[in-house]
Amino acid sequence: MKSILITGAASGIGAATVRKLATKNISFTLTTKSNEEDLELIAQYARRKGASVNTLCGDLSNKKFLETLINLARNETGIIDQFVANAGYANKQKFGEFSDEEINQSIQTMAISFSSIINLCLEDFKKSNNARIITISSFVNKTIGLNDNIFPTTAAAKGALEALTKTLAYQLAKYDVTVNSISPGYTKKDGTHSALSPEEWKKIISKIPLSRLAKPKDIANMISFLLSKQASYITGQIIKVDGGLSLI
């Protein structure tokens, strides 16, 4: 049985990844900060597919919570084999609008929590025969200013996350552990898009070469591939799944 830890698993890309991977040979540990209802719904789906599932809601900036989460993930198989770091959010506040606390919170949620989890279970990946680590980044630190929209604090956090991904990939390569990042374009949410207005979304979609938002399952498909044995020679990469957005 393979143990997979997924943060930000209650909806969107995280939930789509659970749906894609759920089989009887998987032990999931799924977490979200507060969306307990949706987390339980995706857990029930995975269980119907035969997977073993543990869920835990809490703040990734809390070290005691992280320790509890890691121990829970090890409960069934003894080690954590694979980790998908999907926790994050979009903040479009510009300079002069966001506070030091808000940029610190973005970096804490998306980059430091990843580092903290890795530090707690680094030896697990070294021992695993199928270790894979994937971070979910974003286009916002690459395609700047589309329709005059910028996301400074999210861009800073995702840039830091990508740097951590590459350096970890180098460090763990000798243990046959692959570490990659996926950089999605604008991705359809399960609910409404609060970051931008409907008019802004229409303008953005008109500029995406494939003329649509990504579906969460588009990203989940790439996650599934990178977690598989077929991707065993891919590491340290930032892979764009953005409908051609990076061509603009």
Mind explaining what this structure looks like?
By secondary structure, the protein is α/β, with parallel strands linked by helices. It is 43% helix and 16% strand. It has a 7-stranded parallel beta sheet, with helices on both faces. β2, α2 and β3 form a beta-alpha-beta unit.
A few lines on this structure:
With 248 residues, this protein is α/β, with parallel strands linked by helices. The protein has helices spanning 12-21, 36-48, 63-74, 100-127, 152-172, 198-207, 216-227, and strands at 2-7, 26-32, 52-57, 82-85, 132-136, 178-184, 238-241.
Q: Count of helices?
A: 7
Binned strand content: 15-25%
The description of the largest β-sheet is: 7 strands, parallel
Biggest sheet: strand arrangement: 3-2-1-4-5-6-7
Number of strand elements: 7
Uncertain residue segments: none
| Rg calculated over all Cα atoms | 17 Å
How confident is the prediction overall: mean pLDDT? 94
SS-based class: alpha/beta
Helix content: 40-55%
Q: What is the helix/strand order?
A: EHEHEHEHEHEHHE
- Shape category: globular
Cα separation of the termini: 43 Å
Offer a few descriptive terms.
seven-stranded parallel beta sheet; 248 residues; 43% helix; single chain; alpha/beta
